[in-house]
């Protein structure tokens, strides 16, 4: 259905112009891509120049050309929308600060890095807020587990770490964020212009006003902070109202669960198992692969038995005075598909478990 819908908009726009006797009534927050009595002009007949912050920006012009050619967007409407997009220099500065460098070697630990990270998320207030969310959306969480095989604690953990269950979903206009990163940030322009393309398609399909949607400075949206590409691939209409709305908690619950199902979540599998012992000489992280026997030879034993032939990753968490080692199982890796970070994945899981235990 989704793929079919993506192929149809050009046809839908044409038929909207030719078959409707009257223009659609104006809505107070109308979608600028729909209605308003606009003409679908041949590209060669629309010569208006892009104004606003991205005027004379060649990447923006090329993007508009592509959207007209590939997806049948109305050039004038795209000009109208993108002329209202703001170039936000602070986003470029933030992205540069987060850019990977080749000298990421941190200070010699242990210095408590994991304790500090965990304490941002696993707090009594946060756990209580998670309990309230779980109780309120219990039915949707159970239905998501039944449909996708992903348990409530993982969905609750993700939405908690991402947005504190909808409290912090971002206030940046998505259009401004994605236009800035597409047209004025060459290092990631290819990725972000793909996201902007998908974002505008989403707005058209879902009848959202692209000038109104807000989220993170990188363009992540809603309860689960989906990028537009994640919306396209994994978001679902889980409350059955005919629209996929990332700002609707029930749609977000189904979409997060679907994301995990598609990223290899193993139903009823655990996430990680703590180890007794220390293995300072071994490389660690979610990308590492060891057999349980290899780790036993290095001096680690699991606190609960693991299949000896199982492939695991070795996880190492800085507890301040020592390192805590864990066997990372496939479901730990699945959580890192949401955000490629050992700390992130462990915090999601432990927050979800803390909320579960507090219910
Ligand atoms: Ca929905």
UniProtKB/TrEMBL annotation:
InterPro entries the record matches: Lysozyme-like_dom_sf, Lytic_transglycosylase_MltB, MltB-like, SLT_2
Positions of the Transglycosylase SLT domain: 57-352
Keyword Signal: yes
EC number: 4.2.2.-
Biological process, per Gene Ontology: peptidoglycan catabolic process
Any Pfam family the entry gives: SLT_2
Primary enzyme class: lyase
Active site: 162
Domain of life: Bacteria
Region feature (Disordered): 18-38
Signal peptide: 1-26
An MF annotation (GO) of this entry: peptidoglycan lytic transglycosylase activity
Keywords linked to the UniProt accession: Lyase, Signal
NCBIfam families per record: MltB, PRK10760.1
Protein name: Lytic murein transglycosylase B
């Amino acid at each position: 259905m989704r793929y079919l819908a993506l192929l149809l908009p050009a046809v839908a726009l044409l038929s909207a112009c030719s078959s409707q006797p009257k223009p659609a009534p104006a809505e107070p927050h109308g979608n600028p891509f729909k209605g308003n009595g606009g003409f679908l002009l041949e590209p060669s007949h629309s010569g208006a120049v892009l104004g606003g912050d991205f005027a004379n920006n060649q990447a923006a012009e090329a993007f508009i050309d592509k959207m007209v050619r590939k997806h049948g967007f109305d050039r004038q409407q795209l000009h109208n929308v993108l002329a209202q997009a703001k170039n936000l220099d602070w986003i470029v500065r933030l992205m540069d600060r987060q850019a990977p460098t080749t000298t990421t070697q941190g200070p010699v630990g242990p210095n408590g890095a994991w304790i500090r990270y965990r304490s941002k998320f696993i707090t009594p207030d946060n756990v209580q807020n998670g309990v309230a969310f779980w109780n309120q959306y219990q039915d949707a969480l159970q239905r998501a587990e039944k449909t996708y095989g992903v348990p409530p604690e993982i969905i609750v953990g993700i939405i908690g770490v991402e947005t504190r269950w909808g409290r912090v979903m971002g206030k940046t206009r998505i259009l401004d964020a994605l236009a800035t990163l597409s047209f004025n940030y060459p290092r990631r322009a290819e990725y972000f212009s793909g996201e902007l393309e998908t974002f505008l398609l989403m707005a058209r399909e879902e009848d959202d006003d692209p000038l109104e949607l807000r989220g993170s400075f990188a363009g992540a949206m809603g309860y689960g902070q989906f990028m537009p590409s994640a919306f396209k691939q994994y978001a679902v209409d889980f409350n059955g109202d005919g629209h996929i709305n990332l700002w609707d908690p029930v749609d977000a619950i189904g979409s997060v669960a679907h994301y995990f199902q598609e990223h290899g979540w193993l139903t009823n599998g655990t996430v990680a198992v703590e180890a007794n012992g220390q293995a300072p000489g071994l490389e660690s992280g979610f990308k590492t692969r060891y057999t349980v026997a290899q780790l036993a030879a290095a001096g680690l034993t699991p606190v609960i038995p693991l299949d000896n032939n199982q492939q695991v990753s070795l996880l190492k968490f800085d507890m301040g005075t020592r390192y805590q080692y864990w066997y990372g199982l496939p479901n730990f890796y699945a959580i890192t598909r949401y955000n490629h970070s050992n700390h992130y994945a462990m915090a999601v899981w432990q927050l979800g478990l803390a909320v579960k235990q507090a219910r």
